[in-house]
Specification:
CATH class: Mainly Alpha
CATH topology: Arc Repressor Mutant, subunit A
Distance between the termini: 25 Å
Structural class: alpha+beta
Order of helices and strands: HEHHHEE
CATH architecture: Orthogonal Bundle
Shape: globular
Number of domains: 1
Largest sheet: 3 strands, antiparallel
């Protein structure tokens, strides 16, 4: 699997973002997405680097055109 490919991990993080109530045009922060860490830890109990994985998945979502990075301060917008 090459870098930047949408995976089950990406689906899991995307689903968490949607369950938080964010829709197209919504802005949110990395800190808000980090609040899904306990849920993702239950899905992936063997992963000790959930926050790193969240950031990686946000980059994949950006590369796939699903969200944009507003700035380098951890602010995002769903597209």
């Amino acid at each position: 699997m090459g870098a930047g490919e949408w995976t089950e991990w990406t689906d899991a993080v995307w689903d968490c973002i949607k369950l938080m109530g964010f829709v197209s045009g919504s802005a949110f922060t990395l800190k808000e997405v980090y609040s899904a860490e306990p849920v993702l830890q239950r899905i992936y109990p063997d992963n000790a680097y959930i926050k790193d994985k969240i950031r990686q998945q946000l980059q994949i979502m950006r590369d796939c055109g699903r969200l944009e990075f507003i700035d380098n301060l951890g602010n995002y917008r769903m597209l």
